[in-house]
Write a structure and sequence with these properties.
The structure is a homodimer. The first copy, chain A, is of the alpha/beta class. Chain A has 3 domains: 4-53, Orthogonal Bundle (434 Repressor (Amino-terminal Domain)); 55-157 and 291-319, 3-Layer(aba) Sandwich (Rossmann fold), CATH 3.40.50.2300; 159-289 and 322-328, Response regulator (Rossmann fold, 3-Layer(aba) Sandwich). The first copy, chain A, has helices at residues 4-11, 15-22, 30-43, 49-56, 72-87, 101-113, 130-135, 159-172, 188-203, 220-232, 245-257, 291-307; strands spanning 59-66, 91-96, 116-121, 140-143, 153-157, 178-182, 213-215, 239-242, 267-271, 285-288, 315-318, 321-323. A 6-stranded parallel β-sheet of chain A has the order 2-1-3-4-5-11, sandwiched between helices. A 6-stranded mixed β-sheet of chain A has the order 7-6-8-9-10-12, with helices on both faces. In chain A, strand 8 (239-242), helix 11 and strand 9 (267-271) form a beta-alpha-beta unit. The longest helix of chain A has 17 residues, at 291-307. Chain A starts with a helix and ends in an 8-residue tail after the last strand. The relative contact order of chain A is 0.13. At the A-B interface, helix 4, helix 5, strand 2, helix 6 and helix 11 of A face helix 4, helix 5, strand 2, helix 6 and helix 11 of B. The structure holds a DNA duplex.
DNA sequence: CGTGTCCTGGTAATCGTTTTCTCGGAAGTT
DNA sequence: AACTTCCGAGAAAACGATTACCAGGACACG
């Protein structure tokens, strides 16, 4: 790897001048500029990032920690973040926490260690890396889920009332016993959606609800089992609110195995409007979350915070909207 | 940020000793070890990554450059890469090239600049960053698509014969005029799939084919238009081979708009077995590519190459398999 | 003509580690 | 007891950039 010294030598100037030229600083004699530029070109010089970052005491990189790259909700967020970050000259490193608090902590830890300019994360909600974050001076933004204590900005979706609305929708469409499959205890989005569901039931005068609720990981396999259990009970639900799109696929598989058809036999509304949701059999009713916007808003907040030190902690809440399709239409 | 100096001072030892302790090196007196450890703990010391990387002349990071985070094929690759890399102590930074050669070049460039330990990329196939890569000493592996000149290992899928097989499958199922929607000219996978399709046709004695072919970007919108065009021609195809899963969704939408049903009206086989493929209406016949394996194999090759300098350039070809579902069953 | 100001570009300090020397003392050998 | 060997830990030299500081020359002004 060629260094700035070799470039300086070849161009017959000092390293300081090379650095100035390459960073477009100051006024350097135009002939020297030309000499430096050609020397750098000829040698294929490429500045050493770590050295530069060390000296400058900052790194033009944002860390984005999400729980699942294979979930379209998170990839849409990631695209939003990337679009904003990239156009401001930052790179984004994407990390998968798999909803595992240890993995999350470990990623937060390396992000801090590498001295990234800022961190966006969608916290698992349990122990999380919050102490780490609040201990450091590095700006961060929580996406989709709030971060227990630790300051920082937060971008949320009003998922509780979306869940309530979806539940009422099921009842209005004629289903009598909506059930709910939500995420693990302690994960804020899982709790909120459950809470919204319960409120929705109460609003329409139903109360004996907890029996119709199952919790599982935000994955297809867990949802498959949960759906089986629920449907095999003595008084099974006649419809389901499912807390995310990955789980929804698991539930659909279970229905198919049992020879049941969503909509006709079991009503269904799931969170997240993935690109394929309208093409399933039957088309899936969803709560569409503004995932891309979560990303752009979060990234913008982070960049602002990186610019000016301090500022109060803000919380932005975006809203979701119900898209009713055939899976919530009784036969 | 606390530095190693402050830790050393607090522990009453030299920075060298602190460094040794923290890296588990040599034999350091156990009492000193204890003093250092508690000092580091008390100060919340966290080594400065850039400084360490500068001194060590390497960074425990792999760059993975793919063309679309929102495509399940690539996210599956990415998970494969991450699993292997992570268990070997490397982090993975994920970059989206959007199949734009400029963006790709730019990401390759920053990866080199940041002196990552290795690069995995699925090249757009056109100009690419190949000169950059072959110019540097940084090991790299091409995934899914070969890299024009530049050495390095390559992990491919035998997508040509998979396409041929899929085409023959359509004919065997009774379709008479299979068409093809493939990716942009110059992108290797697009060319191979087209080539396989043409071979498949020839193998069953059909030749007037080019009219039934459309090219577009590997995105839903392009595929939607392409499908519309094809189906509106005077002699439209009675079935389609679609070159990836994102496009397949676009085609399905178009079919739905036109009131056509895949399988019954227009046969369809698409590349990639996304989690939702079997749940579409109708279930989609696919060419399942071993995406996760591409990731693990590629990452393993890269790690090997990072370990021992040099070694011949290898090419690994994995095979795909056809999964026939209802979308390739005529009504 | 001398002195002050400005401007350009070089010298060297600096960022925070790791690692090579080097040195002092303990242990072992004869 | 003298000499070698070894070992553990500190001093200091890297790593490759940026940038504060300084030197010297050109120019203006009194």
């Amino acid at each position: 790897m060629t260094t700035i010294n070799e470039v300086a030598e070849r161009a017959g100037v000092s390293t300081a001048t090379v650095s100035r030229v390459l960073n477009g600083k100051d006024t350097v004699d135009s002939e020297l500029v030309a000499r430096v530029l050609t020397a750098a070109e000829e040698l294929g010089y490429r500045p050493n990032g770590p050295a530069r970052n060390l000296r400058r005491q900052k790194t033009p990189v944002l860390a984005l920690i999400i729980s699942d790259v294979e979930n379209p909700f998170f990839t849409a967020i990631s695209r939003g973040v990337e679009d904003v970050a990239h156009s401001a000259g930052y790179s984004v490193v994407l990390c998968n926490s798999d909803d595992d608090p240890d993995k999350e902590r470990s990623y937060v830890s390396v992000a801090l260690q590498e001295r990234v300019a800022g961190i966006l994360l969608s916290p698992t909600g349990r122990t999380s890396g919050s102490e780490l974050l609040s201990g450091s001076r590095i700006p961060f933004v929580a996406l989709d889920r709030p971060l227990p204590d630790a300051g920082g900005d937060t971008v949320l979706v009003d998922t509780r009332s979306a869940a309530e609305q979806a539940t009422r929708h099921l009842v209005e469409r004629g289903y009598r016993r909506p059930g709910c499959i939500t995420g693990p205890r302690g994960v804020p989005t899982a709790e909120e959606r459950l809470d919204g569901y319960l409120r929705g039931l109460r609003a329409v005068g139903q109360h004996d609800s907890e029996r119709l609720v199952r919790r599982c990981e935000f994955r297809a396999a867990g949802a498959r089992r949960a759906a089986q259990e629920l449907l095999d009970t003595e008084h099974p639900p006649d419809s389901l609110l499912v807390a995310n799109n990955v789980m929804a696929l698991g539930v659909m598989e279970t229905l198919a195995e049992k020879g049941l058809r969503a909509g006709d036999d079991v009503g269904m509304v799931a969170f997240d409007d993935a690109p394929w949701a309208g093409l399933l059999d039957p088309p899936l009713s969803v709560v569409a979350q503004p995932a891309y916007d979560i990303g752009t808003v979060g990234a913008q907040l982070l960049l602002d915070r990186i610019g000016e030190r301090r500022r109060g902690n803000t919380t932005t809440t975006l809203s979701a909207r119900l898209i009713a399709r055939a899976s919530s239409h009784p036969g």
